[in-house]
UniProtKB/TrEMBL annotation:
Keywords: Kinase, Phosphoprotein, Transferase. Its EC number is 2.7.13.3. It catalyses: ATP + protein L-histidine = ADP + protein N-phospho-L-histidine. Residues 99-151 form the PAC domain. Residues 171-397 form the Histidine kinase domain. NCBIfam families: sensory_box. SMART domains: HATPase_c, HisKA, PAC. It comes from Phytopseudomonas argentinensis. PANTHER family: SENSOR HISTIDINE KINASE, TWO-COMPONENT SENSOR PPRA. This is histidine kinase.
Length: 409
């Protein structure tokens, strides 16, 4: 028996089979999975919690059930570990305990359970190693809490960062607007001189300057809207009626080469939001879709209800509350986005458009508005497969939409 083995092992009387060393009644009701392996590494006993973690109840004594009843073991990073290379196998050689071994149990159905294992060698009174006992703690709840905590910390950090960005942006936009007002006034005074000169070349230069000032003014206005804390003037809205009322505007904005389809669920519930901001958000998404389809395509606008909880909607933000939601989806058949672009798409001032064709504030403002309405936003996209943006708003009341799909209003 190795040095210090007695301090970490369970002494057993000689001549007793390993499976009977530990009372089944004792281990069966433990909150952790417990199982025993003999000196050949074969599982010879386990409790109910171990089977729950493994996702199955293996037949005892089978030689192929080596070291662990799990189908596969993975590192915390998800890399497969062959059973004969795990500490479970090595302990039969080293005869030393292994503590706080983090691993992932992969079941036969592909589901995974993160666990913390503590493995103790078992010796008889003569020092002969009979096998080992492994206690396995199910970490699913702990990992979920850690992820949720990390999500909350990230959301808090992002909120603090955006507050600073908003303050800086607001100051810059005000100063910028003052300079633009002076330039605009100067151009207005200059316009009469340009007309009097009757020079086509001078008129062309003047129009370029005027257009640049108008674009810069629009950018400054967008910056101010982005940085401003908006008053929540909310009203009860029929999502179908709202989308129907915008259809003509959206078709004009995206152009004739893009086919706009509606798929409005007749039983969609009402929501509560700021109407102007919601219309602006949908129009913004439609224009983004248009820009992703320069050669034409399809734009699908749909509504439906959804019941969300933390299990079926893991990508929720910090203000998420389980319950009934109204979903407005904007789906295009455009060029799509890479995972790298998708990670940055909501960052202020990030844009994939050419210079002068995008401020990079549209999607940031859409997400900010949805968050203010206590809603949720998801985006899915792949290169060449288009993009799907879904806006989730808490249902308001029990009334359902009476709007008829396909009627422009």
């Amino acid at each position: 028996m190795p040095e210090n083995a007695l301090s970490i092992s369970l002494l057993l009387p000689p001549g007793t089979s390993l499976a009977s060393k530990l009372s089944h009644e004792l281990i069966e009701h433990l909150p952790v999975g417990v199982y025993l392996c003999n000196a050949q590494g074969t599982v010879v006993a386990y409790n109910h919690k171990a089977a729950d973690i493994w996702g199955e109840s293996p037949n005892l004594g089978e030689s192929q059930i080596k070291f662990c009843g799990a189908h596969k073991l993975l590192t915390p990073e998800g890399v497969h570990i062959p059973h004969h290379q795990t500490p479970l196998a090595e302990i039969l050689v080293t005869q030393k305990a292994v503590t706080n071994f983090r691993t992932i149990v992969e079941r036969r159905d592909g589901s995974r359970v993160p666990v913390l294992a503590n493995i103790v060698p078992l010796f008889d009174s003569d020092g002969t190693m009979l096998g080992f006992m492994n206690s396995v703690q199910d970490l699913r709840q702990q990992v979920a809490q850690e992820l949720n905590q990390q999500h909350l910390e990230n959301a808090l950090f992002q909120s603090q960062k955006m507050e600073v960005v908003g303050q800086i942006t607001s100051g810059l936009a005000h100063d910028f607007n003052n300079q633009l007002a002076s330039m605009s006034m100067g151009l207005s005074l200059m316009e009469r001189e340009v007309e009097a000169a009757n020079s086509e070349k001078l008129r062309r230069y003047f129009d370029l300057c005027k257009e640049a000032v108008e674009r810069a003014t629009s950018l400054a206005d967008n910056l101010l809207r982005f940085s401003r804390k908006r008053a929540k003037k909310l009203e009860r809205l029929d999502p179908n009626q709202l989308v129907l009322g915008m259809t003509s505007l959206i078709r004009t904005a995206v152009g004739a080469r893009i086919v706009v389809n509606l798929d409005l669920a007749p039983d969609t519930r009402f929501l509560k939001a700021n109407k102007q901001q919601l219309e602006s958000a949908i129009l913004n998404l439609a224009i983004n879709a248009r820009d992703a389809m320069p050669d034409g395509g399809t734009l699908d606008l749909s509504t439906h209800d959804a019941n969300l909880d933390r299990h079926n909607f893991p990508g929720h933000n910090a203000n998420f509350q389980p319950g009934s939601y109204v979903v407005i989806s904007v789906i295009d058949s455009g060029c799509g986005m890479t995972p790298e672009v998708l990670e940055k798409v909501f960052a202020p001032f990030f844009t994939t458009k050419e210079d002068g064709k995008g401020t990079g504030l549209g999607l940031a403002m859409v997400r900010g508005f949805v968050n203010e309405m206590n809603g949720q936003l998801t985006i899915e996209s792949e290169p060449g497969q288009g993009t799907c943006v879904r806006l989730y708003f808490p249902s308001y009341g029990t009334e359902h939409s009476q709007a008829v799909d396909g009627a422009d209003r």
